[in-house]
């Protein structure tokens, strides 16, 4: 059979306007009069390339992501305790094997499904897809996360290389809609990363959102299978030119049939020590 001739799709991605102020999101009702600066208001149509032909050459240190076989033996994703007990150790081994890290610590996971129409409140563990170009940690929130998760060891650990990886995997079905697009980390510059403040009552977290640049090269894996996993690098302490952050977002693929099964995925967040 001939391979599909479709080498890319055009789709709209939600970038953020660089207006000199960090965009913000409040997890509580802000004081009246607070001037909000929402991210994601700069919708741009971009070309998103089919990455399957390059899958063997991609490097988390260069492009910022890889795709590997993971296996689909585990599928009890509705059982949180089982995810932690049985799936987390598989993720740890997977990250070690594919990065060479000596120690890998899982610190949380998110299951993504479309929310039922009558449920407007997101829980921390179950959330919908993210249609915003972002990278999960900043120069400050990466090390801060190490301090929060491993307070007693953080000083020693932060003297050496630490990198954060998300392992992103379809739950039980191939991805038919809302695929994840990744921006080749070599094609975004430091200035494209805009700090975004996540305002909680008791603290402010930060991630990056991105301003648009025509240099960005976007890629995705159409019809990614349930036994495969993306390895997304979301932070690296090394400043030797390797990928430190990597912009990514879910997107509406205009070629998706209306009756396509809904995407369900899990991402497990890890910190890796070398
Ligand atoms: C991630 C992420 C969004 C999605 O894994 O870091 O941003 O829609 N996922 O799956
Ligand atoms: Fe993310």
- What would the average pLDDT be, to the nearest integer? 94
Helical fraction equals: 10-25%
CATH topology: Jelly Rolls
The figure for the number of domains is 1
List how many beta strands DSSP finds.
15
Low-confidence stretches: none
CATH class label? Mainly Beta
Query: Architecture in CATH?
Result: Sandwich
Distance between the termini: 44 Å
Order of helices and strands: EEEEHEEEHHEEEEEEEE
Bound molecules: N-oxalylglycine, fe (iii) ion
Characterization of this structure:
The protein has one domain: Jelly Rolls, CATH 2.60.120. It has a six-stranded mixed sheet with strand order 4-13-8-15-5-6. A five-stranded mixed sheet has the order 1-3-12-9-14, with no helix packed on it. It is built from three helices and 15 strands. Helix content is 12%, strand content 33%. A hairpin with a 4-residue loop joins β10 and β11. With 274 residues, it is mostly beta strands. Bound molecules: N-oxalylglycine and fe (iii) ion. Fe (iii) ion binds at residues 134, 136, 248.
